[in-house]
Amino acid sequence: GGPERKSATPPEMEAYQTQIHFCRKLGYSEDSICKVLEKLGQGALTNDVLSELIKMGDRAGLVGDEATSSSPKLIARGCSFVESPEEKPETEDKDADPSSNLRSIIIDASNVAMSHGNKEVFSCRGILLAAQWFWDRGHRDIKAIVPSWRKEMSRPDTPITDQHLLEELEKKRILVYTPSRQLNGKRVVCYDDRYIVKLAYDIDGIIVSNDNYRDLQSEKPEWKRFIEQKLLMYSFVNDRFMPPDDPLGRRGPILDNFLRKKPNIPEHKRHICPYGKKCTYGSKCKFYHPERSNHSQLSVADELRAKTKISSAK
């Protein structure tokens, strides 16, 4: 262990540091990497080191302990993507795609990162955790809005952690930077809150933030109504992203329906059509037809027309 490291020759020490650097980039903690290297020896092959780390189950980049989840991870072990929205195979029928009924998500990344960093640090991992939560639910149109100056090095007055995650999320077209520039040595930034609200309003998406945007609510009445209806607040419990089950209060929709374009209505709450199979309204009937759940929604008249066409074709 310790003595081996002290007596290491410069080339061995360089190889040791390279191993640590490589595994750190994959999201493993330095403590775990050192334990594995002490166990296998400093000359261990990278594949053997990774194999041992996987056995240890140190998966810092995964959200929660969902290693067995069927949903693909945005960033596995911290910085290596598994599947992106644009790479998803399009073999499925679009009507059958569950993500088509899910609303677009606009994350106020500055608000989320500072919240995860306890309002002291801009924690990029918080952005990943929020994006991952929506990804795991099936959302594929997720955008996190960040001022472009957050690409700059961490400074004592603006500390930032896990900055490499910004680059990875940008590669996946999830992170979007708002413009900024230097003018006479001073940083000129666009108001990212306006970007967030305008984008969400234009695409009828959900804003993820603990900010009420009071200044923007007073700018336009339609923005005020939109923010009141489409703002999703949240909490972080350590590394767990937790939005409320009732985003608009006890009388509003449950979270699952809040995030959908068309709400799912539980069968026991649906009003069954009193005419049953004799109903002639077909898909236009506003009542629920349990007998049609897996069958045609055509009206009786339309079904008769369809049958007539088939028989005449024969």
UniProtKB/TrEMBL annotation:
Tell me its cofactors: Mg(2+)
Where in the numbering of this chain does the C3H1-type domain appear? 272-292
Signal peptide start-end:
none
In the record, what terms sit under GO molecular function? Answer: hydrolase activity; mRNA binding; RNA endonuclease activity; zinc ion binding
Q: Which GO terms describe its cellular component?
A: cytoplasmic ribonucleoprotein granule; nucleus
Q: Which InterPro entries match?
A: Rege-1_UBA-like, RNase_Zc3h12_NYN, ZC3H12/N4BP1_RNase_Reg, Znf_CCCH
Does the keyword field hold DNA damage? Answer: no
C3H1-type ZnF? 272-292
What the record says about family reads: Belongs to the ZC3H12 family.
Q: What is this protein called?
A: Zinc finger CCCH-type containing 12D
- The superkingdom of the source organism is Eukaryota
Q: Which UniProt keywords apply?
A: Endonuclease, Hydrolase, Magnesium, Metal-binding, Nuclease, Zinc, Zinc-finger
Alphabetized PROSITE patterns for the sequence = ZF_C3H1 (PS50103)
Xref: Gene3D superfamilies: 3.40.50.11980
